[in-house]
Write a structure and sequence with these properties.
The chain has about 220 residues and is of the alpha/beta class. Helix content is about 45%, strand content about 15%. Strands 2-1-3-6-8 form a 5-stranded parallel beta sheet, with helices on both faces. A 3-stranded antiparallel beta sheet has the order 5-4-7, with no helix packed on it. Helix 8 crosses helix 9. It is globular and about 50 Å long. The protein starts with a strand and ends with a helix.
């Protein structure tokens, strides 16, 4: 039996937005390990619409309040899709966080978080482009495109290898999956419904880097 506390740092997809069960993928992966007899504490630190720049302002306070080096702790980083979005407002018209800046910010945060335990990096997921853009906020439009998400994901994978952190490429795995597409269409095209989060959780719990925390 492994006793572990895990902070999941990220955005709306980390939070589980769109899931009618309110579990998302983070609580599902915790449930899966608890069912195997492990003592898992899940801290979901996802905030809707957060970019790496916004996460950088808050992560250390939130993580260090929950995870301590003397305990068995770890972090999972699932940010970046919002960085890749094109934002249009009355004063803004461009990428929310340029790629080079995104890479610098995320890698800097992950390296710093290693002080409380090991880290994993979960990549962004595909969208349904004909359901874009997202315009829920008055005067704010976020447009997500798969080509740009893939560009960021590929760069994230390369950066993760450079800093020695395992990376899960969900984009490549899900971009042509009809079940993933169906889960997005049942929601808003960006966030999956419960079925999609089940798919994400299954991929995380089968990931060798994740399994090493519990089976190694």
């Amino acid at each position: 039996m492994i006793q572990i506390r895990i902070g999941f740092v990220g955005d709306s997809i980390t939070h589980g937005t769109g899931d009618e069960t309110l579990l998302g993928w983070t609580y599902r992966v915790g449930q899966a390990e608890a069912a195997k007899g492990h003592d898992v504490t899940v801290y979901n630190l996802g905030i809707r619409a957060d970019t790496s720049a916004l996460v950088e302002h808050r992560w250390d306070i939130e993580v260090n309040a929950r995870l301590k080096p003397e305990m068995n702790c770890a972090t999972v980083w699932a940010i970046g899709i919002n960085d890749s979005a094109h934002e249009k407002t009355a004063t803004t018209d461009g990428l929310r966080v340029p790629l080079d800046e995104s890479l610098d910010r995320i890698s800097r945060m992950i390296n710093a978080a290693k002080s409380v335990g090991p880290a994993l990096w979960v990549g962004p997921t595909p969208v349904i482009e004909d359901m874009m853009p997202i315009d829920r906020l008055p005067g704010v439009i976020y447009d997500f495109r798969n080509e740009m998400i893939k560009t960021y994901s590929d760069a994230f994978a390369k950066k993760a290898a450079e800093i020695g952190v395992p990376y899960l490429d969900l984009f490549s795995d899900l971009v042509d999956d009809p079940d993933w597409h169906a889960s997005l269409r049942a929601s808003d095209g960006l966030h999956p419904n419960a079925d999609g989060y089940v798919m994400m959780a299954a991929r995380v719990t089968a990931w060798n880097a994740w399994r090493a925390w519990f089976d190694g």
